[in-house]
Amino acid sequence: MLCGCIHDPLTDRKVDEAVLLVFRAPRSYTTEDVVEIQSHGGTAILRKVLSLCLKEGARLATAGEFTKRAYLGGRFDLAQAEAISDLIGAKTEKALENALSQLDGGLSRDLKEVRESLLEVLARVEAAIDFPHEIEEPKPSEVLGHIEEIERKISLLLSTARQGRVLREGMAIALVGNPNVGKSSLLNALLREERAIVTDLPGTTRDLIEENLDLGGYLFRIQDTAGIREGAFDQAEKLGILRSLEAIHKSDALLYLVDASLPPAAMPFPAQKKILAILNKIDLVKDREACLAAWREKLKMRAIAVSAKSGEGLPELTEALVNLAEGNPLVPRCAINARHQAALFAALGSLEASKEALLESLPLDFLTIDLKAAVSSLGEVTGEEVSEEIIEKVFENFCVGK
What domains can you pick out in the chain, each with its CATH number? Predict the structure, then answer.
């Protein structure tokens, strides 16, 4: 470590006081020899120091270049490298926990176990092909049993795909219901700030309002939609309703709000996605038990009674939202991303083809082709068998440098 001053070599003018750190290979982040300059913060200083470095022959790092170098240097595998990006972009505690688990090798260990099991099956089959007089062909039922167990483990990993998307991107929740049932008021209550305009006039919300909300360590993208009603008065409200319908289509779940003080009405949305029924304005109801029973009977589902005005029922609503986000975390180590999901589905497809080869009593050579394809797909996740194109695609989504 060296402490000193940075000078402009052309003018000899002092730019900043700095610390120079030297990291020798292979103990640096990238596993290479690395020199790090630590200067004072501030945009002007950093720009000047960077400009001087570029004039002396340095170049700007590309997106994810340092982590890519670390991966290529064997510091960690591709799944762990992706965890660095997730770690930097984590917006909630749960997302951070998932990224740390993946960085620690949780997903990699699970995949390694599955891949090694598959390689054992492949080795057994290939040995029977290469040494037919010395090694007996494995029984189809035995191979089939191993393949089905491997499929079960892969399916278990695939079951975390939704969880992974929720952790990384947030869960899209649409607040829906008739005009003036309190959607904007509920959004404000959940956010604990006056984000949406609230009036007694129906049709006040004309456009989508989306806000991020951290509940129980999960990220929720709450969309306050325009009230859906027939006979909208003007073009602006009609456009707002169209956008509401689009938001409903794209959402992960709906919060369907009704005015608890009004006569019960049937659920207007088909049970095609997860729906939480919310009885708002419960503070205006005298006989709450009878009101809840009547609405639940009419809606044919559980309903949560709340008051956006007083805050009553919000803890129960928060708990219900967290339960929606948690889903079914069968594999606690981590949750896979879209790239992992595609590779695992490809592996399952190859395994299904190998089962067909077994059931049709095809030569073992056909079986090995499909088993090798499955092994290759599993290797794509951790980078053991991956193309340069995939590697470039992974790191281009990183922030510049890191």
Answer: 2-60 (3.30.1360.120), 78-160+334-395 (1.20.120.430), 168-326 (3.40.50.300)
Other CB atoms within 10 Å distance of the CB of residue 150: 24
User: Using one digit for the tens of pLDDT, what is the confidence trace for 178-193?
Assistant: 888 998 889 989 988 7
DSSP string across 167-233: HHH-EEEEEE-STTSSHHHHHHHHHTS--S---SSTT---S-EEEEEEETTEEEEEEEPPPP-SS-S
Map tokens 């190998």 to a residue.
354
Nearest of 390, 401, 383 to residue 30 by alpha carbon: 401
pLDDT for the residue 162? 87
Contact between residue 374 and residue 121 where contact means Cβ atoms under 8 Å apart: no
pLDDT in tens, 132-150: 888 888 999 999 999 999 9
| Mean pLDDT score across all residues of the chain | 88
Specify the DSSP class assigned to residue 284.
G
